[in-house]
Task: structure prediction
Amino acid sequence: MSTAFFITAEGLVYGGTCRRFEINDAIMLFSKLLNSKSQAATFNALSQGINIKWALKDGIVNPFGDKRQAAVTVYTFDLDSDMLLFSDASQNLQLPLSRFRSERSVTRNDFSTFEPISPPQLNPLAFPSPYWRPSCAPSSRTLQFVTRILSDFTHQWRHILRHPYTDSTFRKLASAIVCIATLDFRTIELTSRWLHTHERGPYVWIHDLPSWLPSGDRFVRLGCTTVVLDQDLEHAMALAREDVKMNGTRDADGVTSIPPNISCVYILLSLRHIVLCCVNDQGEFSYTAPMALIDGIDVPSSVAIVLLLQGLSFASPPPRTRIHNFPIEIQDRILEHISDGSIEAARLGCLLHIGSPYIWMRPKDTSRRGGLIERHESPTHRSAATPVETQIWFEKTFSGLAYR
Result:
């Protein structure tokens, strides 16, 4: 059971957590800290008087919407509007901070209710028909592998994905989705047969925000495919059209033509939805119908994942090596020697288009437990029979997703 505190001011968010702090106790503390203080002194009074480890955050975490919410309360001090917002699993309350500065005592009855901001909605008229229908089919091997990892990743971060999030958080999550779909991630394996860990708690808790680096640009260039990252698909389309104009050439009549080395496919990615665009040599756009992708409530749409992989399939041609001349049984044997766990071997098999489709089973090892590979939620002690744990990392940062 825990409480999160946030202070927002001039576009910055400071936050921290502690053991659950009931609202009546909080009212007494806030009154003590702010009584007779000026509005300008509010930040120092709160940050110094609330005994938690404050840190600069990407945004405010709204942890409500799943079974973990019963153990959580959130206090947000919005200094720009001079308001206190309180939320728990059953209610959302607000009160002007000026009430705590006055001599009059504050009670819970002084609070009024408010409606939290809802996630942005897609304008259904923004992408009228007719629609482009890509004919290329993604590799079934890659589709199966990526679908599982995307589903587990979005489950780990569902408390963020189901609510509105800041642009910085969006670019971190969107970058992660692109890395997973392109298999551009690292795996770290915990193989020790004896390990006593002092870590406690889940890898991702309801107050956590992603900590890996966000995408540095709105455009992710991948060969002949460009991914446009924007929470507003209409704006993403405008960015794509502008990108074509910037990179194309115009003739005397003002018609844009596209050089052969310029991206011909654009993936418009808002996380909640995806659109795939094709640009012909005259700079004219055709696009697919928008598809719902990730909302933090339902599992990612299989149709949308296919659309994502179809767009990425234009990025570069499939590799061709001497290994492709071997029977698939030999390819499987080669992949078995890649790593102790089987997930890294499966990732390499998808990248090289070799081997059998991955079945998410632990490798045969008489000394370790066999069976299905499952998402692993938290660090535990390891023994001789503990299966290999494979963690998904984005460069030097753990994604919060692990398997055993």
